[in-house]
Amino acid sequence: MGAEAGCAGTFKVTSNEAWKVTSPEPWLKINARSSRLNDSVTVTAAANTLKGGRSTVVTLTTKSRKVTVIVNQASSKPALELPGVELNIGSEANSAVSFDIKSNTAWDLVVVNENVQSTGFGPRGGGNWLTISDEVGINNKTISLSASANPGVQKRSAKITVSSAGLSPKTITVTQSEGAPTLNIMSGSLSIDAEEGSSASFRVMSNTIWNLKCSVPWLSANPVTGGNFSQVTITAKENSGSTERTGNVIVTVDGLPPRVIEVTQKGGNK
Fold it and tell me: 23-46 as b/e, with b when 16 or more CB fall inside 10 Å?
């Protein structure tokens, strides 16, 4: 809430019981002291003439439960400082970093996730991957940040905006490191008939670009590169011999050992 007299805020109450609402501070007036079931509560503040922000707790009580609402009021001479404009955080789940807000007033934080620079392959890792310890506060405070694992191989970022009444918003960009590459092959071996054009398929899952090659000239693959979830078809030339023959399909991703699939072609009946 702002520092001026008459600044107000409203919140809704949903209840299946009668309830009462109280505040210990005389500078905060409440429009309703009690109600039954669902209702709205408006709180109105007197002017804050202190050098710093101030805070109080509004308590709602029923026969079976107690709920509190924190009300912060800004300073009449607000100040707000952040330590910098950029932070880095690790790619692993629960990676953490923190920063200090230096302020003498009430403030609130908003997190906005930005799009990653994507190659077109692999998950973008969007959504609310960055959590913050406090969305609202007053005066000085250390804010702790925690990240979920980055599922992609590109960095991703989020902007944290700290706002306070009477001041321009301040922003910190949080950048998360690239995630580790992944490569999953849904088969370790394939069997193909002897006839010309015989084929078999397998599936590839990766969060980045993969490439494929065949170790023998009588095998071909389609596609030979891809990302995300792909189905690869291996096609063989005719095996005119009476015995089976083998070749390998090799799938590679930067930063990982190659995965090898053994392909066995049956012998002909000649």
Answer: beeebbeeeeeebeeeeebebbbe
pLDDT for 67 beyond 90: yes
Given CATH 3.40.50.720, say whether it is the number of domain 8-73.
no
Whether the pLDDT of residue 270 is over 50: the answer is: yes
Q: Is the pLDDT of residue 88 over 60?
A: yes
- Looking at CATH, the fold of the domain delimited by 183-265 is given as Immunoglobulin-like (2.60.40)
CATH topology agreement for domains 80-176 and 183-265? yes
Which residues are 128's β-sheet partners? Answer: none
CB within 8 Å of 168: residues ≥ 6 apart: none
Per-residue confidence at 37, pLDDT binned at 50, 70, 90?
confident
Question: Would you state the structure tokens that stand for residue 154, as one six-digit string?
Answer: 């590109």
- The domain 80-176 is placed in CATH, from the list 3.40.50.150, 2.70.98.10, 2.60.40.10, 3.40.640.10, at 2.60.40.10
What mean pLDDT is predicted for residues 160-165?
Answer: 93
- Judge whether 259 and 206 are in contact, CB under 8 Å: no
Q: How far is Cα 31 from Cα 41, in angstroms, rounded to an integer?
A: 6
pLDDT given for residue 122 in this prediction: 43
Distance CA 87, CA 147 (A): 12
Quote the CA–CA distance of 2 and 47 in Å, as a whole number. 9
Query: What is this structure's pTM?
Result: 0.74
Q: Is 30 within 8 Å of 58 (Cβ atoms)?
A: yes
pLDDT, tens only, 135-146: 999 999 999 999
| Confidence band of 50 (pLDDT split at 50, 70, 90) | confident
Domain boundaries, the chain: 8-73, 80-176, 183-265
Q: Per the structure block, which two tokens stand in for 38?
A: 């669902």
